Amino acid sequence: MAQSSITSGQMKRLQVLYAQLARRTMEGTDRASRLVWAAAQIGRSIASFHDLTQDEARHLIDSTQAQLGVKVPPKKRLDRDAAHRAGTEGRRSDTSNQSTLVSPADMARIQHALEILGWSQAQLDGWLRSPSSPLRNHSQASIRTLGDANRVWWALKRMAVARGLWKEKRTV
Asked: In angstroms, rounded to a whole number, what is the distance separating the alpha carbons of residues 48 and 111?
């Protein structure tokens, strides 16, 4: 069975990592040096990074990140429909008839906002039952869908921003 070729994302990542490694170890940054390095790592000669399989590229990326001390958390990517729902459920303009159940990650996002505001779970529950609750049915006061979670999180974020407590995460 033929193995899959390196992906464009792996190619970019590998080139960036090699450049960082070359600067640190004083190896050459030219193409020939890069190919000699990759061939030594995988145990076979290559004429181009395009000759690498996805598994070989993954091995090179992982070993180089370990050597450089780079810790990259694994990304859990949403499919297109899930990403669209994550961004639109709970908005007034959402015309979708679908509802997604709230996930632990959504609840963790709300918990993080509560920590920033210094709120307890009892304060959140009281606020959700109040007339100023972002939930449609304040008597139930439970976050069951992604739309509910989004409405609550956006309201909590607005409160934290208004109080000057919110710091945007910057990824570099």
From this structure: 48
- pLDDT tens for 117-136 read 999 999 999 999 888 888 87
Can you give the pTM of this predicted structure?
0.51
User: What is the CB neighbour count within 10 angstroms for residue 26?
Assistant: 7
Q: How many whole angstroms separate alpha carbon 81 and alpha carbon 146?
A: 13
Cα angle value 18/73/35 (rounded, 5°): 15
C-alpha distances (whole Å) from 160 to each of 41, 106, 122 are: 49, 17, 18
Domain boundaries, the chain: 8-68, 99-172
The candidate with the shortest Cα–Cα distance to 60, out of 18, 27, 19, is 18
Task: Please report, to the nearest 10 degrees, the dihedral formed by the alpha carbons of residues 135, 157, 164, 72 taken in order.
Answer: 160
Classify residue 49 by its DSSP letter. G
Taking the C-alpha atoms of residue 82 and residue 28, their distance in angstroms, rounded to an integer, is 44
Q: What's the rounded Cα separation, in Å, for the pair 151 and 32?
A: 54
Q: What is the DSSP letter of 140?
A: T
Burial of 166 (0-12, 13-18, 19+ CB in 10 A): middle
Among 30-39, 135-144, 145-154, which is the least confidently predicted range? 135-144
Asked if 98 and 92 count as a contact pair (C-beta separation under 8 A), the reply is: no
